[in-house]
Amino acid sequence: MGASIARNLLSAGHEVCVYNRTRDKAETLKSDGARIADSPAEAAQGNEAVLSMLADDAAVEGVTFGKQGIAAGLAPGAVHISQSTISVALGRKLAQEHAQHQQTYLSAPVFGRPDAAAAKRLIVVAAGDPQAVARFQPVFEAIGRQTFVAGPEAWQANALKVCGNFMIASMLETFGEAFATMRKAGVEPHLFLDVMNELFGSPVYKGYGGAIAGGVFEPAGFALKLGLKDVGLVLDAAKELAVPMPFASVLRDQCLSAIANGQGEMDWSSVALVAARNAGLPVLEKV
């Protein structure tokens, strides 16, 4: 995701300096015109903004804080734009920490898989200081097809993102249950998928539904273990806001069952295999 975002920024004419904890991954961007930094602080130095795209809260905190972190290298008045799917609690913490350094923090998580990132088709959800959001609109336009503003508090974008991922996870579970029923009823899963595509007209249904109908879960576009992380994040947000989300608890248990069966590194659409196993069905061969 980060590499595709960096390439699209370079293609749009922005100067880009890249840091990755695995340096070899950053080196691949040299030929595209990126400079390579040895630390997050170095990547931040002298730049208007730093974009971070990382797996979870721990990774974001690891590259943001400390002597070699983003906050240490970012100049007063510069901006940290976090595009990671993180907790609302960390979103608040980041805003507070950057404010203490006279820096600005924006949350701008994205919806879309790696192929959407490469094609500049991400949906960007930004939140934070309205002037800063407006200032960096050209950056969002360089990496995505549309930008939505969730609100004036950065953590609001994180809340929207985890709820959006909850919606996708819910769709994966319902597809898994429906496909299991179709298979036992003798109805071809791809036929059922064609009907659902006609009914909903959604590229998300089409893409994930096709993967589940065909049993294609590797290579992972989004690992199931990260899906479990995101379901946990939406449950944490719901607890803080006193909002019951009973189906999110079901999804957490289904993801745990999948991981217990060795699916942690498979695509999160493989959660559908839990429903298939519960129905006594054999593993579907790739089609």
Architecture overview:
The structure is a single chain. Helix 10 crosses helix 12 (203-214), helix 10 packs across helix 13 (224-240) and helix 10 packs across helix 14. The protein is built from 15 helices and eight strands. The protein has a three-stranded parallel beta sheet with strand order 3-4-5. Strands 6-7-8 form a three-stranded mixed beta sheet. With 287 residues, it is mainly α.
Numbering strands along the chain, what is their spatial order in the largest sheet?
A: 3-4-5
Counted beta strands: 8
Helix content: 55-70%
Radius of gyration: 20 Å
Give a quick account of the main beta sheet: strands, pairing sense, barrel closure.
Answer: 3 strands, parallel
Q: Order of SSEs, N→C? A: HEHEHEHHEHEEHEHHEHHHHHH
Oligomeric state of this protein: single chain
Note the gap between the termini: 27 Å
Global outline: globular
Mean pLDDT across the residues is 96
Q: Any low-confidence stretches, pLDDT <50, length ≥5?
A: none
Q: Please report the number of helical segments.
A: 15
Beta-sheet strand percentage? 5-15%
Query: Helix/strand/pairing class, anyone?
Result: mainly alpha
Provide a brief overview of the structure:
The chain contains 15 helices and 8 strands. With 287 residues, the chain is mainly α.
SSE layout and pairings?
Blueprint: H1 2-11, E1 17-18, H2 23-27, E2 35-36, H3 40-44, E3 49-52, H4 57-64, H5 70-73, E4 79-82, H6 88-100, E5 104-107, E6 110-111, H7 114-118, E7 122-127, H8 130-135, H9 137-143, E8 144-151, H10 154-185, H11 189-200, H12 203-214, H13 224-240, H14 246-260, H15 272-278
Parallel strand pairs: 1-2, 3-4, 4-5, 7-8
Antiparallel strand pairs: 6-7
